[in-house]
Amino acid sequence: MSASRQALARAAGLCCVVLIGAWLGLLVVGNVRTPVGPMDTTMTLRPSLTGGTKINVSPLGALELRSHLAPLRLDVDVDRLDPDRAQALVSHPERISGLQQEIARDVGHGTRDVALRSCVAVVSGATALGLAVYRRPRRALAAGGLSLALLAACGLSAYATWNPESVMEPKYSGLLTSAPQVVGNARSIVTEFGVYQQELAKLVTNVTKLYDAASTLPAYQPDPATLRVLHVSDIHLNPAAWHIIGSLVTQYRIDVIIDSGDTMDHGSTAENRFLDAIPDLGAPYVWVRGNHDSAETQRYVAGLKNAHVLDDGQSVTIAGVRIAGMGDPEFTPDRSTADTDPDGAERTAGGRLAAALRAQARAGTPADIAVTHEPAAARETDGTVPLVLAGHLHRRETEVMKLGTRLKVEGSTGGGGLRALQNKDPEQVRASVLYLDSNTHHLQAWDEVTLGGLGLTTAEVSRHLPTPR
């Protein structure tokens, strides 16, 4: 073996020793127990490909923040709610006003402590493993020095990519999916923090009922100017979808439900009774036809109480929001129809919808939201409406198109329906809650709700804010 290859092999071996030793050091002694407000927590730095911060509230779930990009993640485990400190807040409500500053100080102290302890853990672990492998103090010290340099580089990367706005876009899992009720409108929580403080005081009044309270967290009073739209799609005859939609309507106090099609599977008359749940969902139901929905399906939905069918660019105004839609031009429940240009009909239908939107704008009644089933049709509306919704793909996509229209494609709220049983893995159940300003009707934020598919009981809610152009 040449000298250069030997040197490269030694360097690679040293890197492996450094990484393994640093990881073992963090694993063994790289955590700090520290109080944060009324809670006792354990803070730990962990190797990670994506970075960020994860707050574990066992057994209620977790909260993930995209706080930084670095190969290190900060884990904060909430061990317990201290009854004495919690009771002190209840007995002296005036202390709530300083709780935010107290928590910020506690987190700052804890982060510094865990950073210092992690430095010691990383250097000690790499040095000890280096000594065990090489049995030479100089090589062991080199391993320790290299581990310290790597940790410093990770720290600089985290500092350079620090995102203080990450708290505005949290991702919840487990029972903490009820957290949006506490957070309310993403933009009003800062201006109405006093209401949140009062609700927090109520939450800690009886710590013995913490687990019961977790599923019915006190509702933060949202901005009264916020309109809430539930976007669902591709239910495909899954009866469980109606229970999920009804629960979301109640939990988020939805003003209108928008279904972007494929509610059925074959569009047959026998399937129509499946639609009888729509009038009892608790909110107006706006529907467009998908390629699995027949003309008979459309007529049946139109005859249901509280349902609004949109086609050929027709529009309806609900809760002040004007919604226009176009049904899918094709009926292909089994995809047996051959078509040399499958998107041609969709683009034509999208063009007709765009023409109707322009006509409505000229008449002084511009639409706020457009709805189609296939994204190919939705793309034709770019520049004619602020927001267009679609489905069909059974996966989520969102983008701002060239002329400024935001396209949001929803996944399958029915988890792909019964056809998903043919797949190796269950398809996830997806829906989104859109928060609109009541004056401009522009999108302020949206929550993506994702549930495990058939046989799974996972749940998470991820909040997103529009990126300014």
Automatic annotation (TrEMBL):
> Origin, by domain of life?
Bacteria
Q: Where is the Calcineurin-like phosphoesterase domain?
A: 227-395
Where are the residues of the annotated region Disordered? 327-347
Keywords tagged on the record: Hydrolase, Membrane, Metal-binding, Transmembrane, Transmembrane helix
Q: What is the organism of origin for this protein?
A: Streptomyces mauvecolor
Q: TM spans, by residue?
A: 7-29, 114-134, 141-162
- Please list which residues make up the signal peptide: none
Protein name, please? Metallophosphoesterase
Q: Which residues form a coiled coil?
A: none
